[in-house]
């Protein structure tokens, strides 16, 4: 029997309009107990599933959303097919109000497929809802998304943005792993993913430790939160998180934001280019390039550019929007050859 992971630290008494800045810029996951308990959506869900559905429908503008449909035998796991060549689900577009009615009607039907609406921008399909159900993140340009579905399991994955995830309807279990556990999580393909992010192929609810022995070390570093409606969780950038929806109808609202300006671009693009250009070099050349990256990117020595006049540093200068555009133009020219 595996020992249970340690619980994610909880704090109480935090207001949704006064989230602590030191936490939102930190690298520790935190549960805010009852942070959004006063949201009308949370109160509707506590009354009944039908009340929550009707409350959501009252804001619907007729928009269609992407709906994930997974067969009952998948057990709610949104994952790959058997050979990791594609997903184990289908996606279709449908009106959100019709999807909500179908989800509620299928509750308790073991033969019904999992229906799951993931990462949908709230303002695009439920305009006005954030006027009654929102948190104040100050000057952060956060993207607010809604996730709706039945009992589901989303494999461990990471996101570049920081994240506050608010449990609005139904209970959820979050299992988090620090970024340094990457080697022990057995991550699947980078370019073929179930939902856009690379994921661990270990089923953490029933791990095969003969096949994935290093996962035992990851499990030892895991942190878990059992969350009730009204609770919220801060997930720092790059932390792996496995998400389980535990009830027949669940709604989550999350807020993503980056601590770096948008002109810096996604770091994963660099990873893909490095796979193409560096990974398979002869070992001596790889070692040289590792030193170059350390010098210019990861451990640039203080004063290492003093010999170049500031106005002549080009791409080595401060990474403002103008410099980012210069680098993009350079890369586009090089990659188009």
From TrEMBL:
Residues 115-272 form the JmjC domain. InterPro entries: Cupin_8 (IPR041667), JmjC_dom (IPR003347). It comes from the Bacteria. Transmembrane segments: none annotated. Pfam families: Cupin_8 (PF13621). This is Cupin-like domain-containing protein.
